Amino acid sequence: MNPDNKIDIPASLENGNAGTDLLATYWPSIIVIGIAILLVALWIWRARRDPDHASRRVRRGFLWWVPTGIALFVAVALGVNTWVGYLPSVSAVERWLSDTPPNPEVISNKKPVEGTGSTVLPSSERRVTTASSGYSFLATIPSTATDVPNSGAWVYLPPDYDKPGNTKRYPVIYALHGSPGSAADWFAGGRIDVTLEELIKSGQFPKAIVVAPDLNAGPARRSTEPLNFPGGPQIEDYMVKDVVGWADKTLRTEPEASKRIVAGMSSGGFASLIYSLRYPEEFGSAISLLPYGKPYSKGIVGNAEAMRDNTPLHLIRELPRGTKQTFFIGQDDGESLRAAELINEDLRTRGDISTMRSYPGLQHNWTAARTMMPYGLVWTAQQLGWDEKTS
């Protein structure tokens, strides 16, 4: 199949609006600005009706201008959120706020679920998936990597995962957040569970599991890339060894590289290229959204060897050919477009199946990632020959 063929996706996913609500529009910001204008108008009206001593006017004015200032701040914050697309719905806010797992959740994966009293989730006495809906939850993934603590991950189980008697295994999409970011990002700003269910319903992608790990090497949302740092946290080891190992041990996965997609946006998109190129035995496909050409993190940039080993073009030219991997690269029309084009050209020269799709008008934000992801998933499924019978 020609990797540059047109990609058709459901109309509901074309503009990145699936799973969003009023928070994804500028209406909340407009409403709050309207409230601020109303407060100013009321203050002026009262001041003209009730001229008073200057000191009393100042005190009364303070009572009006403080809430007005707060309203304007909230309006700006809502407007920025709409532009970035990070919290496009109330449910996204809830997920972002509950991004720290209290305890590990254990999922039975080796035996068929027996209906009532199942151990799909330790707190559940009923099925959590249905024939048409999957289930998303927060888990803890233990770490054996240097300077990386046990960390959270959001997980999506596809429809009918815990259907009585179901022993089917599923492909896995590993979704990597940007920087700064957290495990919740692909389920909050990315709405990946909503996107995947739309594609499953349309028959354009098989039922699959999603694992979105926290790659901060600690509780804070840090501005760093998920790589192995010389003398520091080995975040890449945590993702490739611990996260993948946990998923294969805990979930009913298909534990082959050909059934694993590593995807991400921004620094997560950059890392998806690094991981797939360095570990073809682990990841058969990459969906790299909004990537760039070279690492930027302190500790990598100052180390020539680490810089070279974490540059996609170097890996493409130095690592073995013939990996039979697929690479989808999605980019806006900004300054990183040329870097994405060069990566795609070198992948094709090496003999890989790759495509680079540019989406003019989109920015380097979650609205863009949410818009591009369904194209990447459908393209990958087409190149791999996946359909509903595959999983």
From TrEMBL:
InterPro entries: AB_hydrolase_fold (IPR029058), Esterase-like (IPR000801), Mycobacterial_A85_antigen (IPR050583). The chain crosses the membrane at residues 26-45, 65-86. SUPFAM superfamilies: alpha/beta-Hydrolases. Keywords: Membrane, Transmembrane, Transmembrane helix. Gene3D superfamilies: alpha/beta hydrolase. It comes from the Bacteria. This is Esterase. It comes from Mycetocola tolaasinivorans.
